[in-house]
Amino acid sequence: MDVIFEYKQILIEGTLVTISLAVLSLLLSIVLGLIGAFAKLSSSRGVRRAGNIYTLFVRSVPDLVLMMLIFFGGQTLLSQIGGLTGLWDYIEINQFVAGVLTLGFIFGAYMSETFRGAILAIPRGQIEAAMAVGMKPGQIFRIVTWPQMVRFALPSFTNNWLVLVKSTALVSVIGLHDLVWNAFSAGRSTHQLFSFMIAVMVIYLVITGLSDLILRRVDRKYAAGVRKA
Amino acid sequence: MESERSFYEYLQSFSETRSPIDFVLIYDNLPRFFDGALVTLQLTFLALLVGGLIAVPLAIARAYRKPFLSPAIRVYTYVFCGTPLLVQVYLFYFGLGQFTAVQESFLWDPILSNPWWCVIIAFTLNTAAYTTEFLRGAIEATPHGEVEAAKACGMSPFTRMRLVVLPNAFRRALPAYSNEVIFTLHGSVIASTVTLQDLLGVGRWLNGRYYLAYEGFLTAMVFYMAIVFLITFVFRMAEKRFLGHLRPREAPAPGSARVAA
């Protein structure tokens, strides 16, 4: 146990990398999820199909495969494009960017399902009423759709977030110095990998436990106007 | 003359002239990818099978709130559902070697020093934890009337479980289980991080060997997509067969309705 406290600095640094990776991916996934949800609910058939293909694709490809494709393939693709167009010589995709892009892209698809269901749960009459009083589409979204959507989406959103936090561990495979990577190298140099992996598990459980607590608060705020069944 | 060229020659000229992806290399290494797919499927379904068998009694103990047993199982599922699978695999494969007692035990040589066994153990415990929790939900959702009816027929608790509670719980859990199967397949890529040659492992090997960026990953991706589509198809068939009574009834054709009236 003592050895883990000796290495606490490196574990804390890794935890911060993991958390910032997760939060940034979450933001990207919310944006993509909203776009995807509205695409799926669009009146245009082509847009709807594009939204569904997005979800289908993400559901069928494992996250690590996509992450490696973006990290190794994206690098080459970017330099090939740069070489052809002459716009840039060399752009490096670092592991952090590759991680955020991959996780954001993957969880954007899951979020789009979540948001789609939540938007569908809002009674159609409310949107019509908002239009009738002359609200612009942006206003309708901000004042009518969003506050209720959050409440309907929250349980599934929480679940997506917890899965996302766990998925960040994969970024250590492409070499980002996150919690798992740091703990692994510390454990290897001290020959105490078991203790360090247990420590990593405890840290993940703390992160998920805390986010559960916070999201329950958010739920209470957005459900203020609704009586508990 | 064009039509007389074999498929392979066509592939060769296409790869050399027009495509950024070397299809010939992929074609030449296809047997390896099929071997990799076999490893992936083996890991996935073995873990699902054993994990499912473990999950049934655990879910029953959880659903009926057996004292001591149920909280203990909850701790197990909480830890395994709340931590990354990658860390669990590392814990078994790299972690157990920390203890000399483990290294000297009879389990070390054939099992715990072997990546395949460590991966199978981690995957099984992981999928068993998830399956336990949603199976518990399905068992708890059993309508009380069904249990009462079974009691009224004089069924023993064991018969009740076997003939009434479990079959219906399995049906209710089927949609969630199809997700679990796909997630286990997705999770199986982690095997490649501990040197196993599963689909992604073969892809990484190919890219590393020929210094490529796309080919190995893209081929692995196509294989995974094919497997997922197959699984989805099988589950859709199963849902049609076992959950047919829950499907929304289709409106009868206008013509037939008139005849009925």
Layout of secondary structure:
The complex is a heterodimer of chains A (229) and B (261).
Chain A lengths: L1 H5 L1 H33 L4 H16 L2 H23 L9 H26 L3 H9 L4 H31 L11 H12 L2 H30 L7
Chain B lengths: L6 H11 L5 H6 L1 H34 L5 H14 L2 H11 L4 H5 L3 H5 L2 H26 L3 H9 L4 H31 L11 H12 L4 H28 L11 H7 L1
Helix pairs in contact in B: 3-4, 3-8, 3-11, 4-8, 5-8, 8-10, 9-10, 10-12, 11-12
List keywords for this structure.
heterodimer, A: 229 residues, mainly alpha, MetI-like fold, 81% helix, B: 261 residues, 13 helices, flat, disordered C terminus, transport (chain B)
Cα-atom radius of gyration of chain A: 21 Å
Order of helices and strands of chain A: HHHHHHHHH
By secondary-structure content and strand pairing, the structural class of chain B works out as mainly alpha
At the fold tier of CATH, the topology name of chain B is: MetI-like fold
**Stretches of chain B where pLDDT falls below 50 for ≥5 residues?**
257-261
Mean pLDDT value of chain A = 90
Number of domains of chain B: 1
Question: What is the β-strand count of chain A?
Answer: 0
- What fraction strand of chain B? under 5%
Mind telling me the C-alpha Rg of chain B?
25 Å
State the separation between the terminal residues of chain A, measured CA to CA.
Answer: 47 Å
**CATH homology-level superfamily of chain B:** MetI-like
